[in-house]
Write a structure and sequence with these properties.
With 306 residues, the protein is α/β, with parallel strands linked by helices. It is 34% helix and 16% strand.
């Protein structure tokens, strides 16, 4: 079993939100990127910029699918006024909320017309120049999630800015507990593919890598950055015990798995729900159970392949 770091408590954490007269709990204490200000909701986002609101956000535009799902989990239906075309969860929001473009092809004029008082963005998923343009006239919280600890802090930050401190704290605590209880078994070397033609896989400085480790896998590309391109020859040279074919951003199928099996006859090839490896919001609550089921499928299957 892989030892999981204690995420629920520590010298810089507290067990429950304290009540401060005239002030608002911001998720953690003794942390440089959270401030207490009288009559202000203020946090420092994960790129170092301070975000201050005079009241909990009332009109929110989310530019990140996983954070859109988080907002729904926190009960912010009325407050969310805009999403992207990739924000497919919850489905009722996808069908009814105004869309402001794609994550990398935003329409700032649509966003401005919605008159938001808070925009949620992400360093990797959104284009910096577009985010900076929006920041000129609206507060923007930009997440930069590299591991589980970052994800939990982002959840608490969003709770602080939206007046959902208690709900966010409970969710983050629940996620941390689920990961601590997760059983992972013997570590297996793994390759996590995100794209085809050319093949691309998750490197060692990605959130996917961090969750692979949590799930009991050893990333064979841990020494490489971001999402390296791999030739068929490079795939053969890696010889991973397991190849995980992500459902996103490329929609791998069983046919693609059989194609890869010809290159890697000794590897176990499985389709994987990419949302559990790359969505860093409320979906994390179900990730440990999914990872355990994925590992179990490797044991039950004769060869572990799709």
């Amino acid at each position: 079993m892989i030892e999981n770091k204690d995420l629920k408590s520590g010298s810089d954490r507290i067990e429950k939100p304290p009540a401060f007269a005239g002030r608002h709990y911001l998720g953690t204490v003794n942390r440089l990127n959270c401030l207490f200000e009288l009559n202000m909701y203020t946090v420092q986002d994960q790129t170092g910029n301070f975000v201050s609101l005079p009241f909990p956000a009332r009109r929110i535009v989310s530019l990140v699918p996983s954070q859109t799902e988080l907002l729904a989990r926190l009960g912010l239906d009325e407050q969310v006024v805009g999403i992207t075309r990739f924000c497919i969860h919850p489905n009722r929001w996808y069908r009814s909320k105004p869309r402001v473009g794609g994550t990398k092809q935003l329409h700032p004029e649509r966003i401005r017309a919605l008159q938001p008082d808070l925009v949620l963005a992400n360093k990797e998923e959104n284009v910096r120049e577009q985010v900076e343009e929006i920041r000129r006239w609206c507060p923007v919280y930009v997440s930069d999630v590299k591991d589980l600890e970052d994800a939990l802090q982002m959840i608490r930050d969003v709770g602080a800015l939206t007046g959902k401190d208690g709900e966010a704290f409970s969710l983050a605590t629940g996620i941390a507990g689920a990961f601590q209880r997760m059983q992972t078994g013997t570590p297996l070397t793994a390759l996590y593919l995100i794209w085809r033609q050319p093949y691309m896989a998750a490197g060692g400085d990605t959130f996917i890598h961090a969750l692979l480790q949590r799930a009991g896998f050893v990333n064979v590309l841990a020494h490489q950055a971001r999402y390296p391109v791999l030739t068929p020859g490079a795939l053969v040279a890696l010889q991973p015990q397991v190849v995980l074919l992500s459902s996103e951003p490329y929609p791998f199928t069983a046919e693609h798995g059989r194609e890869l099996q010809a290159l890697l006859p000794g590897s176990r090839i499985l389709l994987a729900d990419g949302s559990y490896f790359s969505w860093y919001g409320s979906r994390l609550l179900g990730a440990p159970a999914y990872f355990e089921k994925l590992r179990e499928s490797l044991i039950l299957s004769d060869h572990g392949n799709i």
